[in-house]
Design goal:
By secondary structure, the protein is α+β, with helices and mostly antiparallel strands. Helix content is 35%, strand content 18%. The strands form two sheets. Strands 1-2-3-5-4 form a five-stranded mixed beta sheet, with no helix packed on it. It has a three-stranded antiparallel beta sheet with strand order 7-6-8.
């Protein structure tokens, strides 16, 4: 679940990343009504929510309809914990800015779903590094991944090119040796629990997040600014 917009007095139009149909928009009639049938149903459609949906799908329509919906995974922390919710909303905004086409991508869907579930179950130390992990691994699915070519002889990450190089480039858009090394560690994380071994302070996390968002802004057309980034900086 990515976004919900009120429509009329009682309805919603929701934007959802689905496993079978990719990015889709659905009309939900009456879910915001005070009737017994509508009460509480709109609460399911929160950013990062993982739902089971039964849909009416028509390739010729831009706005689809839902027949049935329910939780597919019940969060314990993401929707109630301030820190994890801020991280989840950041992840949703970043994903939304990268999604330009509605085509299905099962690998992307599974990565997103697994990421939110891991965030919900993560320790505080893992959760603190989760925005960094998500930010460096998401580009894999959109064709502009960081090249994992770090070595002692290529210790600088060139943010314009997305790869590690031997000497600082002529421009200023690169990471120093320490931040480049941390990025290389993040790129090699296979399971989120490994993030606990990467010890960072809030200043390093801020610097890395800003660098990664700068990289996205060069790679994604009309990327714009990240509204959730400032909140995340404060929380991290």
């Amino acid at each position: 679940m990515l976004r919900a917009v009120r429509y009329g007095d009682t309805s919603l139009i929701v934007s959802v990343l689905t496993e079978l149909f990719g990015l889709q928009s659905y009309m939900l009639n009456g879910v915001r009504s005070s009737s017994k049938k509508g009460a509480g149903r709109a609460n399911l459609f929160q950013p990062s929510g993982i739902l089971d949906l039964v849909v009416y799908h028509n390739d010729l329509k831009q706005l689809q309809r839902l027949r049935e919906f329910q939780w597919a995974f019940l969060y314990e922390k993401v929707l109630s914990d301030v820190h994890r919710n801020a991280i989840a909303v950041y992840m949703v905004e970043l994903l939304t800015k990268c999604l330009k086409q509605p085509e299905a991508n099962a690998d992307l869907y599974n990565f997103i779903e697994d990421s939110f579930i891991h965030l919900d179950r993560a320790s505080d130390a893992v959760a603190a590094n989760f925005p960094l992990f998500f930010s460096v691994h998401l580009p894999v699915f959109f064709g502009f991944r960081f090249q994992d070519n770090y070595s002692p002889t290529t210790p600088y990450l060139d943010l314009q090119e997305g790869n590690f190089i031997s000497h600082p480039p002529s421009h200023n858009h690169f990471l120093d040796e320490n931040l480049s090394f941390i990025t290389a560690q993040l790129l090699r994380v296979q399971q989120p629990n490994e993030l606990e071994e990467i010890k960072l302070n809030h200043l390093l996390r801020r610097q890395l997040l800003q660098a990664y968002i700068t990289y996205y802004s060069w790679q994604v057309q009309e990327f714009g600014s990240m509204k959730t980034l400032e909140v995340l900086r404060e929380i991290l």
